[in-house]
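Many introductory courses stop at the sequence. We go one step further.
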Amino acid sequence: MLPLRYYEIDPGYNVPAALRISENRPVFEMPTSTGTLRRMERVGILEFRLGGEPMTLAAFVPEGTQRIESLFVPFADQTTGSETYSAGRYLDLHPTRTGVYSIDFNKAYNPYCAYNDTYECPFPPPSNRLKSAIRAGEKAPGA
């Protein structure tokens, strides 16, 4: 299974994004790989362009988070289940003072459950399923 497999780094997959803050941080029950639901608050929607196409991804924190130290951005794309892990991949973004973020898909990683099914991994919600192939970041585990 090791070493980990990655796409070649492509600077075109590192794009600026604006975070449109959610007014009331709605709570979502995210299904997980173990069948349980994980309660997550949607902090906002990241708006960006990739390959000239406008796209969005929701950013989350665990329910009840008071001090945001990291935004959780799970996503799936057109490589999910073929070139990349079948349950999607994750990005972690650190808060900025400006609300402008750098989404670097070269840093997309597989959840722990890709390597050990005893881990509980949230699945990306329908809003975070991109209609493009993101050939950046970690690939599916391989032999």
